[in-house]
Structures are given as C-alpha cells and as structure tokens.
Amino acid sequence: MMPSASSSQPTTSPLSSSPPGFERNVREETNHITESSSNEEVDEEDQDISRMVLTSELKELPPLILSEYFSAKVTVRSKMAILKEIQIWLTEEDKTIFRNYPQLGPLIDLPIGGEFSGALAHNLLLRKTVCQKDHEVWFLIEGKPLRFFLNEFVLISGLYMGGGPSEDEIKAQEEHNELKNKYWPTKKSVLLVDVAKKLKELSITNDRTNDKLKLAFLYMVAGFLTSSDSKKVVNPSWLQYANDLNFFTQYPWGNVCYNQTLDYIKTDLVAKFNKSSSAYNFYGCPWIFQIWAFEAIPKLGEMMAKKLALNEKNKNGPRWLRWQNVQKPIVVSFDRCLEAMRSAEFAVRPTLNPSSKESQREYYLRIDSTTQDDISL
C-alpha cells in the first residue's frame, strides 16, 4: 500500500492511537545510579531518568506526516567495519596519540559489534510529525513526542557544531597538498578505497610518521561519519585539511555530519515510494540516530542494546561510547519493542538534557546557546 500524507490538522492514524490533545504527566522514579568499575564515578546521565516526561509539555500532539504503514528495506553506507579497520591498523602507541586529539580522538574507543537496525530506523521515520523548523525533526512514538536536534546530536556524538578554524585559516589550509603529492601524485581524484589501502600499507610497514594518523582521521570522517561509498571521491578539501592534525581535529565536523544525516532523516518518503521503490539509503551517520533512539526511549535501549558501565575510556566522552549494539534486528524487532511499550506505562525523554559535567565539555559549549532550550514545533 502506498503511503499517504496527513492533513494539516492532528489526526488519529494506524501509527498512533493517541488523541490530539494531552496533558503534562510527569512520573517520579527512584534515582538510578550506575557505578564504574572503580565504584567511584556516578553516571549523571542515568540520574536524569529520575524525572522523565511521560507525555510532553506541548499543548497538543502535532500531526504525523504519514498516516499509513508500509514496509521497506533501509540500507546504510556508514560501516562499523571502518572503525574496526582503524583499530587494527593502528598500533597501541598510535591509538594513545589518536585518542588525545579532541573531538574525533575519543571515537577510536567506540564499542564495535552489533548491527544497525534498518527496521528501527524505518519505523521511526514513519512516525515523523509535521514540523515547521528546518533543522530539527520530531517523532511521535505511542503518543509521546521526541525531538532530534542539535542538542541531541551533540550529546550523542561529541562532534563540534561551531568554532574551529577561521575562514582565513581554512583558505590557507586549502593550499596544502602534501599527502596528495606524496601518495597519489598522478591521480586526479583520491577515492575512499585509496585512503584505506594506503593506511593498511603504512600499518604493515609500521610507518611511524604522522601520516598514518592523518589518514586514519580522514578515513573515519569520509567513510564512517559521512558514510561515502568506497568508490566515491574523497572531498579534496578534506584531504588538504588532513595535512594538519590540529586543524583537522578542530574543524566543526558536526556541521557536516549533522546536515547530511538530517537530510536523510527528513527524506520525503511519500515522494520516494510513489516511485515504486521498496528500499532506500540512509546516508550520513545513522549510528548516531540509532543511539539517540536508545537514549530517548530507554525501553528500546534495554531491549535492543546494552549500556556499558563507566570506565576510563568512556567516562569523559560522548554518550555513544556507552552503548553496545548487541542484538540483531531479526532477534528483537521494533514491533516487539512497541508491544512491550503498549503493555505497560513507559517513559521517554522528549529532549535530551546535559548533565552538569556534559554542559562544561567542549562539544556542548560549541552549540549555539540560542537553540538549546526551544522545544516548540
């Protein structure tokens, strides 16, 4: 059955049985404190669950964009295998240096394993609501609204949304072509697969120059955070940026990743499936979107993933360092999760809020302060 767009007025649909109006309802829960292996660190993010909105502070539910369910296959280009390759190709000494760089360095310790759930992504995208804002998306899950916005993206990923090199510094850096001239002097364009091959070669020869780190950072950004096809051309400017590790790791990659990911979250599924397509690609970094779902809907995270205890590698990093994707989609389906949600009252986080420690971290401080507290549609 082909999808249909909703009207401009709130409606009841097969995707949600909730009425168009609802009241604020807040449940008090016992504070849940997760301790690290040293039993000294308190997980402040888990403490935030002590007050979670069961509905929302919005005065009425926004209408869903789609009113009918339809099945589709969702594929992703962002592969966890890229992080695994980087972890294999870098020595322990390399990784120690790598993780000390800001923004991207901590991602070397992202838990590897599990799978991306295309079924979860598709079912969430079917539940997008009408939203007049260009840079955020709202969803309606069993009558409860959830927001995916800069705040949520940054708390999950730890990527920088602002600051970094000035326009003059960027222009100056685009004059540097050392890596290109050294490794691919005769190639007109450098492909992602070229970067991977060269990085692997340097790991085999145990090259101790910074080139291995430069290519590892470039491979992470071009292949994982922005999920380019292996045969796609690496952005020439990014290759130039990689010549300077300090420049590269201060660059606001969050803007690049967020905009690309958001473009695909906001994809017009009605138009896409009117073309008789039964599958679509989710570009950008859909892993961030999946971890956001686990954070925003704790019951979902409990059933489909595993939240790790605090340790030395993840306690000062972004939230996705704490999540292990352990369940295959075929084992735990989104429909099964919805059944669990319908069977008992469940809590959601309509918006994600930083802990006191998170609010002081560089990645959070780089968010435009004028956008942080707006929860209107």
Automatic annotation (TrEMBL):
Residues 125-262 form the DUF1985 domain. Pfam families: DUF1985 (PF09331). Residues 1-47 are annotated as: Disordered. Residues 38-47 have a biased composition (Acidic residues). It comes from the Eukaryota. Residues 1-20 have a biased composition (Low complexity). InterPro entries: DUF1985 (IPR015410). This is DUF1985 domain-containing protein. It comes from Ficus carica.
